[in-house]
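Example record used in the benchmark description.
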Amino acid sequence: MLSYTGGIVLFAAVLHASWNAMLHGNRDRFLSMTWMSIAIATVSTLVVLFNPWPARACWPYIVASGLVHIFYNVSLVRSYRRNDLALAYPIARGSSPLLVTLGAALFAHEAIGPLHAVGIAMISGGIVAIALQGRHVSRAGALSALTTGATIALYTVIDGIGVRLSDAQALTYTAWMFLFYWLMPLLFVAVRGLAPLWRPVRAEPLSIGSSLVGGLVSIAAYGIVIWALQSGAMGAVSALRETSVVFAVLIGRVFLGEAVNGARWLACLVVAAGAACLGL
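Model output (structure tokens):
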């Protein structure tokens, strides 16, 4: 993967950790994710109105990815209810690069070099070590985070294949896929009703505002990843994106007051070394 692309994906990693911290920092994460989704879907609607339609070949992937993303959103909310950011986020993100590499090999016939394979393994291993270091993980909490990781791998492989069939229309592909985020407010209203969605707009405007900003950050972060998937190996792009865990640890420590010990910092260095391998 080119160093320029790698740098852009690292920037996406910072953005990704930021919106996850915004989500985790809100008291009602289902509500927060719903307003994030409203921001994402609104921007996507504006984009599709002024851009050509995606190539016909990528439509099945747009639909599949959009639906998987909704399941991912719900799974992420459940995971954050059971664990703090420094635990749930690394387990979910750390389990996905190896799964993406396997999926890319099976469905996109991608091969990856030995050095990149080592880098991916170091990133995944370091991320999982960050999550497990000195912590007791319940079976339910681990299962919830791993389910989230599986959905991440699934939509990454789907989008990696889909965007390559889009005739280099990564922006249009991304926007159409994110239109499915209109399903999140429908799901929220079906579960809780309309009033709990609108009441916080007046009662907690700062919380709703942070969620809307988080949605804008999210669409930028994953839009960059989809752009990188057009030419970069899926496993390598996924692993580099998941260095966001290091940034999540920093955010959790500085802004959320979560404890970080020496062993976890060492694991962060392993992740950084793995990222360096992907840049060689």
